[in-house]
Amino acid sequence: MTINNLTADNELPPTSSPYSLLDELSAQDDEAKGRIRLNNEAVILAAAERTFSRSGFKGTTMAQIADEAELPKANLHYYFGNKQNLYLHVLNQILHDWLTPMDEITLESDPKQALEAYVRQKMKLSFERPDASKLFANELLQGAKVIHELLHTELKELVVSKKAVIESWIAQGKIRPVDSTHLFFSIWSITQTYADFDIQIKAVLGEEANHADAQERAIQHVLSVVYRTCGLE
Question: What is the mean pLDDT of residues 40-68?
């Protein structure tokens, strides 16, 4: 074996640059900070949803939301700036969460399956997050000053697109002729009743209103109304 071969055989692998290692550590640190931020924002938004629902915008303080979130008030200002901006973020998230189930309604989907999936997701939101529905309803009753633009853009555009799907189903004879826009109004009304008027419902049904079998009974009733309306019995 030559000296040259010996040198090559025993050559150490190249080491990583200290700069690339620092970059990797920095990226990991940024990722960890990103997760912490997302978690804190989610906690704050959930606490704000509950607090605004109970006390309204004017009756709620950032200190109350911080107590509900069990975080320093400074965190709220760091992530959201001020109370009005936090309120807007809460309402925007509620609207987004309510509109997402409409993704089930597509030209390719089976009407009965799509409507069932949509209704079930809407009812699930009403059962699990009644404060969200109450807060949104109260904002509408106050004239929707904060979310006026969202209603006239994101909400309207999505309803128009899903209205076209319903009308396509009608044209293909898949469902009975209905007013496609008012079909959505009716579904919103009947599903969100279980959130906005949950106290009234519990007064009649008692504690069983919170049981899974009672909630499924409610879902089946709402589905039967929607199916009959669309001729899908």
Answer: 95
